Amino acid sequence: MDVIVDLQYGDCGKGKVAHYLSHKNSYTHVLRYNGGANAGHTIFHNGKKFVTHQIPAGVFFGVRSVIGNGCVVDPEQFFKELQMLEDGGIDTTGKIFVAENAHIITSAHKEEDKKVGAAIGTTGRGNGPAYREKYGRTGVRAETIPELKPYLIDLYEEWFETTGDKHILAEGAQGFGLDIDWGDYPFVTSSHCTAAGALLNGLPANAIRDVWGVAKIYETYVGSKEFQPAGEVFNKIGDIGEEFGSTTGRRRQTNWMNMQTLERAIRMNGVTHIVFSKTDVLREVSAWAVIDDTKVIEFKSEKAMQEFVSERLKSLDIKKANIFFSDSKETI
């Protein structure tokens, strides 16, 4: 199994990487392993733009696409997404599945989240209340929803009792900085955004092969806490990078990339491949900098910044340390 994990606060381009790897590698399954309809992956396929919130990227290439039990599922949004894909020319028949023990987001969850989630800046999609009831053992599972019956799957049977080798791409949502345990609590999401979160979907620890960490060459954050420093350069980055949430449309706050939080995310997720996205944004702004030990380090060129970042990361205890710098319209 290969795992995709966001190393920052979400919105780093995991969907593009999942789309690329789904096409490049011979996976039998693409598994969405955490989160719910609060995440939005923007994918360009055959010249068309798709924004998926729950359905994994494998469906674009006919790969079995599974919403795992680590997720919470909004049936209303699920069927809207199916229709969007069908309208866009994507055949979803027999390709999309939902773990029967995944928990359900109800209309009551969404209404509650819109009211109480404002304090920390949630998307209001009902994730928090749904996960709360899951762990309070009062939740509703997918297996009880009649409309979802044609899509239900037993993941133990799928992973261990069906014939043939399984080559899984595990596609994460949100980011390490939003992880319920390791993020900036309480400004976090309600699920496990780490590579280990993929294992919670019925997979053994030795299943993980490669971990693809995705980060922007700068940082963005959507939510209530103060994140963006003073300075017009950060507004320019937001404007040029078109930094608006794909789920809520809210403007994202921006900042320089923090080396300490990046290194922490790389180490704790066991990252083997690193993709830095949107390098062209800083090129257009003509400003390059990182935060290192609370100090802003500025660079005179894109090359100088990339050399600094590459050398720092190669010094970490990373198994492969394959590092890629990509522009907005590229993947790797």
Automatic annotation (TrEMBL):
The active site is at residues 11, 41. The keyword Cell division does not apply. GO terms for molecular function: adenylosuccinate synthase activity; GTP binding; magnesium ion binding. Its main location: cytoplasm. The keyword Ligase applies. Pathway: Purine metabolism; AMP biosynthesis via de novo pathway; AMP from IMP: step 1/2. One of its GO terms (cellular component) is cytoplasm. Plays an important role in the de novo pathway of purine nucleotide biosynthesis. Catalyzes the first committed step in the biosynthesis of AMP from IMP. InterPro entries: Adenylosuccinate_synth_dom1 (IPR042109), Adenylosuccinate_synth_dom3 (IPR042111), Adenylosuccinate_synthetase (IPR001114), P-loop_NTPase (IPR027417). IMP binds at residues 38-41, 123, 137, 174, 189, 250. It comes from Candidatus Kaiserbacteria bacterium RIFCSPHIGHO2_01_FULL_54_36b. Its cofactor is Mg(2+). Mg(2+) binds at residues 11, 40. It holds the Pfam family Adenylsucc_synt. It catalyses: IMP + L-aspartate + GTP = N(6)-(1,2-dicarboxyethyl)-AMP + GDP + phosphate + 2 H(+). Belongs to the adenylosuccinate synthetase family. Binds 1 Mg(2+) ion per subunit. Its EC number is 6.3.4.4. GO terms for biological process: 'de novo' AMP biosynthetic process; IMP metabolic process. It is found in: Cytoplasm. GTP binds at residues 40-42, 252, 278-280. This is Adenylosuccinate synthetase. Substrate binds at residues 246-252.
